[in-house]
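Handout, section B. The chain below has 138 residues.
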Amino acid sequence: MSEALTQGVHHVGLAVENLDQTVDFFCTCLGWKEVGRNPAYPSAFVNDGTVTVTLWQVADPQTATRFDRRKNIGLHHLALAVTDLPGVFEKVRAYPGVVVEFAPQPTGPDSPRSHFICAIPGGIRVEFATRAPAATAK
């Protein structure tokens, strides 16, 4: 098998309905930091210490076409790893404008991982998921 030519995700870019509202969700609700902004584009960059998400304001939110996960090719959702899924769920579901798609549940039968999905203000789907426990040495 050949060695991968990539080294993980550099950043994820999302087009959003309301730039300030989306930055506020990431920073206020999730504790991320705004690490840059380009008013001419307009865009903002938020980071959790591991990954950067670039947020772009659509030109006209009133005429923008919403993504339909069953019809469109493209980003289905953004998945973020968490360690305290119940705590994150309580904070996220209480945030104004969040629509929970489903509450925390296992990712599949007999899975050690759990997750939930919601739409953040503006409609972007975000998944919050635990990682599988590390294998123990024998």
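Note. Helices lie at 19-29, 85-94. Compare this with the example in section A.
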